[in-house]
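Quick note —
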Amino acid sequence: MKLLNIIKLSFFVLRSNRVRTLLTGLGIIIGIAAVIVIISAGSGAQSLITNQLNSLGTNLIGILPGSSNENGAPASALGVVVNTLKYEDAEAIAKQVPNVVAVSSYNIGIANISWQGNNYDTNFNGVMADYPQVEDT
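Predicted structure written out below.
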């Protein structure tokens, strides 16, 4: 068969089965769109995670109070408040550990504050002066 006859036959079959042609084309369009959406969502999530990890830095170490056993995470990660680290511990790390560029301890809590005669319950984050050097904020 010649190429021209094959093309004519193809268009004849497509015209004679219009509903089938429409549904097949619609299925192909929806399938391609679904693949594009899934790939875009995966790429966006990967970019978000990569940016968050890059903002932490590759040379950052976090020290949390508490202890752990072989079967679990540190107690502070499970919502238990453990106050065993002090400001002096951060100072000792900055002075005594070699190759440390900056140290910043932080304290997170809830407090009642008073401003212009009104009382507010608020969250606070207290950090040291080197915090901008430690965290990419």
